[in-house]
Specification:
alpha/beta, 376 residues, binds zinc ion, 56% helix, elongated
Length: 376
């Protein structure tokens, strides 16, 4: 990946450009910012620029053999430390980043805005603590004493550097204090204060901002095969994080429309209170992202129903499978009731954004919706 391909990071890229063109990049750089803003792809793009054989100003050429190898994390002078579990399933073998590198390369090729959660899933790390163990830093130390393979710079990327325990951090500190010649360290964390103060003081910090909504939207449309409406919805809810936006798209594919229709049918039946308790509990166990997308879907359906009522169903852009439901729903409900539903969904969405208790919020919502539906 090249630096110019990173969406939404104008400020950090301008800063990097100045440092690269002036040849004043510090030997240790800390990229920080929330998950999904692009710390890992930026670290890779910067490493590629540093290792490129024909850089053009602040940008890597993207075509030389070094670029090609660095873009796949296959360059021999590009060293990567990432969170892993330090022992095998049987517990008798020490594992190193190299054991996981093939899986990591594959994941990065698929999605450079990789989240730690997804990485944990790839490694099947359920209930295991992901960390960067001390033996990893010691291995690195040994490798860095050797000459570089290509006779140029060496680059070390430490993804989620906060996953080093104090032992590993102190070992890294020694490297940062007496850095080997022509070696660049690029660390990434979400919050700088998660690092040991001594390590922090050795790094120049660079903050990555949330990616603006239009840029998340454009990226999704360019890289994912999704309808415009779904991309817009995911972008608006993702709070500047590409990995979160993708997670939301995956939920959208689980067909929340069908779930909503099913919910409405159950709530129009008398004696729905038992159903409601279980439903609210089920919803509260979903991720916060899915809860929000469910409510956004509900709002979308209410808007579509209003269009059916106004005799312009073609404007609702509904799927043919939903046509029958929307027709019956619009015949069943008055405009006033639909507006009441809209108000209820919006209020619950606000509650969730403010981190209210999901079980309680969904239970109350269900009761209110059920009353609205059944009122004379
Ligand atoms: Zn190149």
């Amino acid at each position: 990946m090249r630096l110019s391909e990173l969406p939404g990071q104008t400020q950090a890229l301008a800063q990097l450009g100045t440092l690269l063109e002036g040849n004043t990049l510090p030997h240790a750089l800390l990229l920080f910012g929330r998950e999904g803003v692009g710390k890992l792809p930026m670290a890779q793009a910067l490493a590629q620029r540093l290792l490129c054989q024909q850089p053009q100003g602040a940008e890597a050429c993207g075509q030389c053999p070094s670029c090609s190898r660095a873009s796949k994390w296959m360059h021999p002078d590009l060293h990567l430390l990432m969170p892993i579990f330090g022992r095998s399933h049987e517990g008798n073998k020490m594992l190193s980043a190299e054991d996981f590198l093939p899986a990591f390369r594959e994941q990065f090729a698929e999605m450079p805005w990789l989240s730690l959660k997804n990485w944990g899933n790839v490694m099947d790390a359920a209930n295991k603590q992901l960390m960067i163990p001390i033996h990893e830093v010691r291995n690195l130390q040994k490798k860095l004493t050797l000459h570089s393979f290509e006779g140029g710079k060496k680059v070390v990327v430490i993804w989620h550097a906060d996953k080093m325990n104090p032992e590993a951090s102190n070992s890294l500190l020694k490297l940062l204090e007496e850095p080997p010649a022509a070696t660049h360290f690029i660390l990434t964390v979400e919050t700088p204060n998660d690092l040991l103060p001594t390590v922090l003081s050795r790094c120049q910090r660079m903050g990555l901002h949330r990616i603006p909504v239009p840029e998340v939207n454009d990226w999704l449309l360019a890289h994912q095969d999704v309808p415009r409406g779904q991309a817009e919805l995911a972008a608006s809810l993702a709070d500047g994080s590409l990995s979160l936006a993708l997670e939301m798209l995956n939920h959208a594919e689980e067909n929340l429309s069908a779930e909503f229709i099913d919910w409405m049918r159950n709530l129009t039946k008398a004696g729905a209170s038992h159903y409601l308790l279980a439903w609210a509990q089920g919803m509260s166990r979903q991720s916060r992202e899915k809860q929000k997308v469910f409510l956004e879907t509900a709002l979308e359906k209410v808007r579509a129903t209003l269009l059916y009522k106004a005799n312009v169903p073609q404007l609702a852009l509904a799927q043919s499978s939903e046509h029958e439901f929307l027709q019956r729903f619009s015949a069943f409900l008055t405009v006033k009731k639909l507006e009441q539903l809209q108000g209820l969904f919006e209020a619950t969405l606000v509650l969730l954004i403010r981190n209210a208790n999901a079980n309680m919020s969904f239970y109350t919502l269900g009761l209110d919706v059920s009353r609205t539906l059944q009122a004379k």
